[in-house]
Amino acid sequence: MNKPFHILFLCTGNACRSQMAEGWGKYLGQPFIEVSSAGIETHGKNPRAIAVMKEVGLDISNQESTRVTDEMLQTADLVVTVCGHADEHCPVLPAGTTKEHWPLDDPAKATGSEEEIMHVFRATRNEIETRVKDLLQRINTAKSA
Asked: Which of 11, 21, 33, 108 is catalytic?
């Protein structure tokens, strides 16, 4: 039996964007894709990220805010950096591991009223959903080629 394709979403603090990407990846990619997320550092989970994912029926509250390890990099087939800092500070990847960069703005830096901030989080959530769907489609196309 072939091992599932493993995607690691990497961000600065593993608090927002990578957490949402992990949630979408697990929801849309199971059982053929394994998904995890980590940060260059750990900042804890952002409650607004949890809230906007819950709005679409995905509970990411049990995911951990984790610092990337060598073991995580060894098991990943693809590392997706979801912010410029993680892209610039991404550890050296093992041979055969691919990297892709998604330049997503940090919703945690949004300012304004609570509704304006939540609007930014929702827009980020929706962009990540679109990107994850596209990525999974490309992986499935490559596997069947």
From this structure: 11
